[in-house]
Amino acid sequence: MDHFGLDDEQSALRETVAKFASERVAPVIGEHYAKHEFPYDIVRQMGELGLFGLPFPVEIGGMGGDYAALCVAIEELARIDSSVAITLEAAISLGAMPIWRFGTQEQKDRWLPDLVAGRKLAAFGLTEPGAGSDAGGTRTTAKLSDDGTEWIINGSKAFITNSGTDITSMITVTALTGPKEISSIIVPSGTPGLTVAPGYDKVGWCASDTHELHLDDVRVPVANLLGERGRGFAQFLAILDEGRIAIAALATGNAQGCVDESVKYAQARHAFGAPIASYQGIQFMIAEMEERAHTARLAWRDAAARLVAGVDFKRAAAIAKLHASEAAVENARVATQIHGGYGFMNEFPVARFWRDAKILEIGEGTSEIQKLVIARDLGLK
């Protein structure tokens, strides 16, 4: 795998995370996955490594890196397991980053120390049972109390990552605070009226935490408004643009993991008197898988470089997310085919990669949404 273009710090980070994923995640994640069990010990160790603080400044307890550094770490984790990778991605991109980007100093002081250290996780509630890609169809409401000191929130949120763990500290939800006015409001975990439904029975990402949420007359202080009133939807469109780069990095890791496992299996598996790696048909399949993973990596790194440089990255992020997610799905399909019957067995990582890949074409904006973003940025309206 080619890592040309990383600076010395990024290369050192990549090697550290790759070693952690290989030595600490790989031996135990299969059991967590089979049990649909959240890997608290792995998350704790990621916090000790400083991974949750990667894109945040040192003065607030972060590692002083940037979004590109975060994506390097996410890709390396996803080469071994996507449940662990999405836990990190969502905790930062959707959990802590909105507080950092839009929070008041008081909100930052209260929430960020634990989030940046990985001691606590945060979640982001945008999607609703009847509003997925059409996030503008939000039905959750937040009204001011008669004395104007509290928000009273009612509604439901769906598919919310990191929302029900024992270490989840808060959930930022979007809600209608007026006609066609969407705002973001912080709801601390355990607030009366906030119900976290049982975890979903998912096809993939089985060791990550995902729940539906119900808010019934949930009351929080008016100071829990995150950012400017009425700007919640715009804020999270910006957050999702960044998050698409991270999902592209995760998808690249999934795609590369399929290559790694297929090379290893093809060299060990014999058929008709020779390793299947010696047959041109298998060689071409793996070569095409490597091509897809490589170009996906180039795409997310380009988008991340644009973000870090402070130039427009919206189209590049959409291209990266679209291409990398489709590469992951195709690589997972081919890797399973190369493994034959063993690819259908959960004891082999490619079975997990296959189950985990499809959501990448859906989460944080479907492939169709990415195509709309690209087309509109090209002036096709």
Automatic annotation (TrEMBL):
SUPFAM superfamilies on file: Acyl-CoA dehydrogenase C-terminal domain-like, Acyl-CoA dehydrogenase NM domain-like
Stretches assigned to the Acyl-CoA dehydrogenase/oxidase N-terminal domain: 8-118
Pfam families, per the entry: Acyl-CoA_dh_1 (PF00441), Acyl-CoA_dh_M (PF02770), Acyl-CoA_dh_N (PF02771)
Cofactor: FAD
Assigned keywords, A-Z: FAD, Flavoprotein, Oxidoreductase
GO function term, MF aspect, one: acyl-CoA dehydrogenase activity
Residues of the Acyl-CoA dehydrogenase/oxidase C-terminal domain: 230-378
Domain Acyl-CoA oxidase/dehydrogenase middle: 123-218
InterPro entries cross-referenced by the UniProt entry: Acyl-CoA_DH_CS, Acyl-CoA_Oxase/DH_mid-dom, Acyl-CoA_Oxase/DH_mid-dom_sf, AcylCo_DH-like_C, AcylCo_DH/oxidase_C, AcylCoA_DH/ox_N, AcylCoA_DH/ox_N_sf, AcylCoA_DH/oxidase_NM_dom_sf
PROSITE patterns (UniProt xref): ACYL_COA_DH_1, ACYL_COA_DH_2
Family: Belongs to the acyl-CoA dehydrogenase family.
Stated name of the protein: Alkylation response protein AidB-like acyl-CoA dehydrogenase
Biological source species: Allocatelliglobosispora scoriae
